[in-house]
Every structure is written in C-alpha cells, then in structure tokens.
Amino acid sequence: MNIGDLEGSIINAIKDATKEAFSTMLMTELHADESFVKNEENVACDLISSLHFFNDKYMVKIALFCDAASACHIAGTMLGMEVSEVDVDVKDAMGEIVNMIAGGAKVKLESRMGELHLLTPWIISARNLKIPSRSDRKTGFIIDSQARFSWVMTKFSFDKGTFIVSVLPNEVPQNSADHSDKDINILQQEIANLKKENLTLRAKFKEVNMVV
Predict the structure, then answer these.
(1) N or C, fewer C-beta in 10 Å, the chain?
(2) Hey, where are the domains in the chain?
C-alpha cells in the first residue's frame, strides 16, 4: 500500500490522538478545523515540537507549530503552575505532548501500516521562526529536506489559544524487488541525516539559547 492511500488514515489518526491527549492529560477540549495542505514556505511560529515514526516502508513526521502564549498555557496546564515564558520546562512539556500524540496515532495505525517505531522528539523555540520552502536554502532552515509531500495541517483551538498539528508522510525508497537489506540501509541513513540536522540546528541557534 502506498503512502497516498494511507494519508487520510494518518491524518484522522493524528487528529483523534491530539484530541485524546488533550482531553486525557490536560482536561482540555479542542476544536479542530478542516485540514489543509501547505508547502513549507511561510510557516511561522514561536515553537516547533516534532518527531518521526517509521518502519521499513513508511516514515511520517508530526510537527506541532505553536505561538509562545499558547505553548506556555499548555505547559502550565500540564505542570499545574503559572508559566509566563518559554523555558526548559515548557520545551519539555511540548516535547511530551507531541510524543503522546504520536504514540496515540501509532496505536491506531499499526493495523494498517505494520509495527511502527518512534524517534525522540526535538523542540526548537524562538520568536517568529520561519520555515522557508525547499528551494530556498539560503535563509532559515529546512524542517525536512527529504519530504516528497507537502504538510497536511490541522488547526486546533481551545479557550486559551491555538496551535497547528502538521503531518508529513513519506515512503522509504524501494530500490529493487529484493530490497530488505537496502531498505534498512536507507532507513539508517535517513535517521543519520536527522541526527546530523539536529546537530546543525543546535549549532545554528546556540546564540539564542535554543534546546533541540
């Protein structure tokens, strides 16, 4: 089954998992707008919390795009305390949120996609982060240069703010009919590339005290 056939199931699973995570862990009810497709150009926010889940055939990125005020409220609700600025606790909380969303979606999708594995979340925060298109590599940074599809975004709102949960589905390239070893090597290279990208982001944003 190709990733296009699975896209609707992936989007719905992540929508449901997002609502369930907020309802269960934060006692917060969310309203979800209709999903929309957007390329990487002009996506702006104050915090990005993201991770991948994958197996030998599929790789899907989930990213939560959030403004600082909404991130502080979400983290404060999780921690049971007043939070006024994006600090390490807020970043940790937002990493846990995207981890819960991905974990919930994983359970819902494994019957169709097979066993899936989660990578560790990474978080970037700064005022007015902007993600350029893949063709513009001179400014900002690329959130996923290997993407074959555009972001499928869903805007969620609650009484204290809004955020966007985005999905970027992809397939691990298939090089031959007898491809199991090659797929493993490709997947390992993808993971190595992600780790390298994280190190690059650490260095690039060190001046503004970012944690990835």
Answers:
(1) N
(2) 3-208
- Quick one: which of 180, 175, 21, 11 has its CA closest to 99? 21
Q: What is the pLDDT of residue 29?
A: 95
Predicted pLDDT at 2: 78
3-208 homologous superfamily: CheC-like (3.40.1550.10)
CA of 42: how far to CAs of 37, 66, 83, 100, 196, in Å?
Answer: 13, 14, 28, 27, 24
Residues of the chain with pLDDT under 50: 132-148, 176-180, 182, 207-212
pLDDT score recorded for residue 174: 63
User: Could you tell me how many residues make up the chain?
Assistant: 212
Q: Which two tokens stand for residue 163?
A: 């955020």
Buried b (16+ CB within 10 A) or exposed e, 7-45: eebbbebbbebbbbbbeeebebebeeeebeeeebeebeb
pTM of the predicted structure, to 2 decimals = 0.74
